[in-house]
Structures are given as structure tokens and as C-alpha cells.
Design goal:
This protein is an alpha+beta fold. It has 3 domains: 36-138, Immunoglobulins (Immunoglobulin-like), CATH 2.60.40; 161-279 and 453-514, no CATH class; 292-450, Glycogen Phosphorylase B (Rossmann fold), CATH 3.40.50. The protein contains 13 helices and 22 strands. The strands form 6 sheets. A 5-stranded antiparallel beta sheet has the order 11-9-10-21-22, with helices on both faces. Strands 16-15-17-18-20 form a 5-stranded parallel beta sheet. A 4-stranded antiparallel beta sheet has the order 1-2-5-4, with no helix packed on it. Strand 6 and strand 7 (122-123) form a beta hairpin. The structure holds 2-acetamido-2-deoxy-beta-D-glucopyranose (2 copies). Residues 305, 307, 334 line the site of one 2-acetamido-2-deoxy-beta-D-glucopyranose (NAG).
Length: 518
């Protein structure tokens, strides 16, 4: 009898303890002093279209939160102490994993900035963060004269293996010949843009009919040359989808910069126009970007629907197969077209068309299928940044970062012909914990390697290395290019006056002028 009583008492204690713990857990608030704050957006010299930093909520025992402590837990105020009206737009994005991404876009440059991070009335971590300026905004036309210093400010990695791989076959480049041969070889049927950067001005010559996509490259080059002085460099950008250089390395190769690479071509791959534009237009024209996606990853993993998911256009035969497969296996796979464009519209086989789904709603599903479109599917960065697991088709096409991704670490591979897709979805269902780890590793990769700072570093490195081989004098080229915008000539000696140039009205409000060189 006694032991029964003791047991009863113990049970009572456990109950009390459980109640107590529950009460403590639900009322848990982050500690202002223990919470962590870090990121480039706390540094004056890292100029980006939208600057950003992170907050990790930590409780008073030093444990990280793994779920949101509440969307409005932290308040962030950014002001310039020396100017009463600061034009700065701030957003605190809840990543729902205990961490927050804070981003801000400045509409003017300031002598200095004060970033206050508050939890109720208490300052978080080392808040207020004082950025000793000048702190330049995106439109500031004030390039840092030293590339090495700029790379240091941006914390750029010392190298990118993809760039080294791509440029390794171009030890010697004859620019005179290229300037002549590349337009002849590709310029009639393909759309190319011949860029020359000289004294940090951008000059352009287009070949072919459909050159509309050069706006992305122009915009990026102008943004980059506003931030840092580029070496003199000359290159051809392929404005079409497919990589072009099919010759073998033993033959005479032409260096062509493309947004997509493939294992059967020798094009030099750059971050895609889609990713690049979304970085330039973050907190501007675009709503889907590498930051907004982090705050819109759908329900928690255990709440996600465990059906494979895909939406898109009919831009490749395997996509037709994918939709057919889904129609035959609706409990495993939900895949449907939102648009018919390329193939004969066969409703009975591939229909019906479904309504467009917001990209953020993709993440209601655990398993995201990534199948090539015309070339690589440029949704990959955003898919990785969500907290669903990506099932990626094996493919000859790649973006600039694919070589850093590992199958079974960052994504689940599927065969090119999709013959093992259902099997792989089943594997993921049977190995939920492992699938979740893969989802998290993919997300971690995207959070670190696919943000604006990495993309700016990648392009800069590409132009910097290219310039050591791809360099010649412009004069005598007959280059009747367009300088897309003029920049002040900032040297190491007069660099202190950058802020003045930044604040000066643009030389020409339309900032476009035609120039003949010679
Ligand atoms: C807590 O979060 C920070 C920031 O993400 C991370 O660096 C640290 O390793 C985490 N600590 C633990 C114990 O997981
Ligand atoms: C999961 O998604 C599938 C396909 O979209 C749908 O048919 C099913 O009802 C969903 N399941 C739940 C539990 O919502």
C-alpha cells in the first residue's frame, strides 16, 4: 500500500513538474543580452542594394530558440544621428526557426548610421550599432578605387572553383580575333552583347535581334561599377538561354559568358539574370527574392503536405512526363502546368491547366521537384532557401553554384528521365528525419552562398580574373559603344571626396549618352 502512495505522490510531482515546465516554456522570452546579432548590414562599407543582418533569439540559459518567439519580438530602428529625416526602409523578417533576417534599403547616403535593436525597451546584444560612415546607398555613384579593399569590405572568398574551372581553358585570349570572330560565329543567329569596361565606364555593342535581356546585365554592371572600380575588361555575354561554345578544348575556343552552363559546352557561367535582378530589386520591384523567401517557407516540417509538388510551363519533354506521372499517381505527386507554350496543347494527356500558385505556397509541400526547363530551372536558389527538401533532376545544365552542391547532402537526386522519381519520394517518406536534414542543409547553403554579397563577389572575381587575360586597348577598335552612365573618376588620392560625388546630381538625368571612342 505504501509504495502505491509513494508512486501516487511521485506521479503528482511529475504532473506538477510538467505543468510548471509548460508554463515556463510558453512564457519564455529571448534574453536581450544573450541573443545574437551578426551580418554585413552592420558594416558601413559593405554597400548592397538592400543591406541585411541577422538576429538569433537565445533564452537566458543560453539556448537558441528553434521556433519563432513571435514576429514582433525585436524592434529595429535605423537612423542617421546627423540627419533628422533618414530615408531608410527597414523590414524584420521572421524565419520561424528562432532567427530573424533584418533588411533595409537606404534612399540616400549618410555620414553615419545608428542601428538600434530593441527587445521591449532593452537593447539587444551590442545594440546600438554605430556605422561610422560614410554609409553609401545603392544609387551612389562613388566606386571604391581599390578592388582588393572592396573585396575585404564585402568579405569575399579568395576564389570560386567554378570560375577557375571555367577560365582554365582560356590561358591565352586574342581579343582582336575574338572581337572579329565571335560576332561572325554567333552574332547572326544568337543574341550577344559585347561589353567593354574601360576606366570603369560600361560600353556596349549588341549583335543579333533579340537583345532585350541585356537590361539585366547593364543594370548589374552599372550597380557594380558604382560600388567598385573594375579593371579594364572586355567580354561577350550570351543573351539567349542555351550555352554556345560546343568546341573541344583542343580546338580554338571563344570565351562566352552565359547565365547557364552545360557539361557539353565551354561557356563561362555567371549568376543567372533572374537571381541577379532579384538582388538588385530586393525591396523594390520584385517580391520573390532570396530574403523574402526565407520569411515565407510555409508551415513547419511536420505540418507540411507529403505529396511531391511541381508547377510550371511545358518548356521540356520531361516536364510532360512529370505531369503524366502525377496524373497516374495523384497521392504521391501533384504536378501540373500553369501554362502551355512549347508543345502541342494536349488537354487529354497533360491538362487541365491549373491556376498559378504563389511561389511561397510551394512550401506547403515537403517535396519540391526541380526539373529543367529550357535550360536549368532558375528557381533552384529559391527552392533551396525554403525548408522543403529538393528532388533535383540529373542534368547537363548548371548554374554558377551547382558544383558546390552535393547530392544526398543538399538535395535528393533523381534520374534525368524521372524513372526513379516515385521511388525517391517514397524514400523520403520512409526516411523523414534524413529528408529533413537534407532540406536543412540545402537551406543553410542558400542562406550563406546565394545572398547578394556572394553574387557581387562572384561577378567581381570573374571580371578581375578575366581581365588578366582579356585585356587590350580600346582605341582603334572602332567601338561605337554606348556608355550607359558616366562615373566620376575616383582615384586613391581623391577617394575621400566620394560622398560629395555621391550627393552631386547625376551628370545627365537620363544617364545615357552615346560616345565614340577612338
Ligand atoms: C545558435 O545559433 C547561432 C546562430 O545561428 C549558431 O551560430 C550557434 O551555433 C547556435 N548554437 C547552438 C548551440 O546550436
Ligand atoms: C496534400 O496535397 C494533395 C495534392 O495537392 C491533396 O490532394 C491532399 O488533399 C493534401 N493532403 C492534405 C492532408 O491536405
Amino acid at each position: 500500500m505504501l509504495w502505491r502512495r509513494v508512486l501516487g505522490f511521485l506521479r503528482y510531482c511529475t504532473l506538477l513538474q510538467a505543468l510548471f515546465t509548460a508554463a515556463v516554456c510558453t512564457s519564455a522570452v529571448p534574453s536581450a543580452s544573450k541573443s545574437l546579432v551578426w551580418g554585413l548590414g552592420l558594416e558601413a562599407n559593405a554597400v548592397l542594394p538592400a543591406r541585411f543582418f541577422f538576429i538569433q533569439s537565445v533564452d537566458k540559459t543560453g539556448k537558441n530558440f528553434t521556433a519563432s518567439p513571435g514576429a514582433n519580438t525585436f524592434e529595429v530602428k535605423i537612423t542617421s544621428p546627423s540627419e533628422p529625416f533618414s530615408r531608410i526602409w527597414v523590414q524584420v523578417l521572421d524565419r520561424h526557426d528562432g532567427s530573424f533576417l533584418v533588411r533595409y534599403r537606404m534612399y540616400a547616403s549618410y555620414a553615419d548610421l545608428s542601428i538600434q535593436i530593441l527587445l521591449k525597451t532593452k537593447h539587444v546584444a551590442k545594440s546600438p550599432y554605430i556605422l561610422k560612415g560614410p554609409v553609401y546607398h545603392e544609387s551612389c555613384n562613388c566606386p571604391e578605387p581599390s578592388g582588393a579593399l572592396w573585396e575585404k569590405h564585402m568579405h569575399c572568398p579568395s576564389s570560386f572553383s567554378q570560375i577557375q574551372h571555367d577560365l582554365s581553358v582560356f590561358a591565352k585570349v586574342d581579343l582582336e580575333r575574338n572581337a572579329h570572330e565571335i560576332p561572325q560565329r554567333f552574332g547572326q543567329r544568337q543574341s550577344l552583347c559585347h561589353y567593354t569596361i574601360k576606366n570603369n565606364q560600361v560600353y556596349i555593342k549588341t549583335h543579333g535581334e533579340h537583345v532585350g535581356f541585356r537590361i539585366f546585365m547593364d543594370a548589374f554592371l552599372l550597380s557594380l561599377t558604382r560600388k567598385v572600380r573594375l579593371p579594364d575588361v572586355e567580354f561577350f555575354v550570351n543573351l539567349g538561354d542555351w550555352p554556345l561554345e560546343k568546341r573541344r578544348p583542343s580546338e580554338k575556343l571563344h570565351p562566352i559568358f552565359s547565365w547557364c552552363g552545360s557539361s557539353d559546352t565551354r561557356d563561362i557561367v555567371m549568376p543567372t539574370y533572374d537571381l541577379t535582378e532579384s538582388i538588385l530589386e530586393t525591396m523594390g520591384r520584385v517580391s520573390l527574392d532570396m530574403m523574402s523567401v526565407q520569411a515565407n517557407t510555409g508551415p513547419a516540417w511536420t505540418e507540411k503536405n507529403s505529396t511531391g509538388f511541381w508547377r510550371g510551363r511545358d518548356s521540356r519533354r520531361e516536364r510532360l512526363e512529370l505531369v503524366k506521372l502525377a496524373r497516374a499517381n495523384p497521392t504521391m505527386l501533384d504536378a501540373a502546368f500553369t501554362n502551355f507554350f512549347f508543345f502541342k496543347h494536349d488537354e487529354s494527356l497533360y491538362g487541365p491547366l491549373v491556376k498559378h500558385v504563389s511561389f511561397f505556397d510551394f512550401f506547403k509541400y515537403k517535396y519540391q521537384i526541380n526539373v529543367d526547363g529550357t535550360v536549368a530551372a532558375y528557381r533552384m536558389p529559391y527552392l533551396l532557401a525554403g525548408d522543403s527538401v529538393v528532388l533535383k533532376q540529373d542534368s547537363i545544365y548548371y548554374e554558377h553554384f551547382y558544383s558546390q552542391l552535393q547530392p544526398w547532402v543538399h538535395y535528393i537526386p533523381i534520374r534525368t528521365d524521372l524513372s526513379d522519381l516515385l521511388e525517391k519520394i517514397q524514400w523520403a517518406k520512409d526516411h523523414d528525419e534524413e529528408a529533413r536534414k537534407i532540406a536543412q542543409a540545402g537551406q543553410h547553403f542558400a542562406r550563406i552562398h546565394l545572398m547578394g554579397d556572394s553574387i557581387f563577389c562572384y561577378y567581381f572575381k570573374l571580371f578581375q580574373i578575366s581581365s588578366s587575360t582579356v585585356r587590350r586597348e580600346l582605341h582603334g577598335m572602332g567601338f561605337h559603344g554606348r556608355a550607359a552612365a558616366s562615373k566620376p573618376h575616383i582615384t586613391k588620392c581623391n577617394a575621400k571626396r566620394r560622398m560629395q560625388w555621391c550627393k552631386a546630381p547625376p551628370l545627365d538625368s537620363r544617364a545615357v549618352e552615346t560616345r565614340s571612342l577612338g
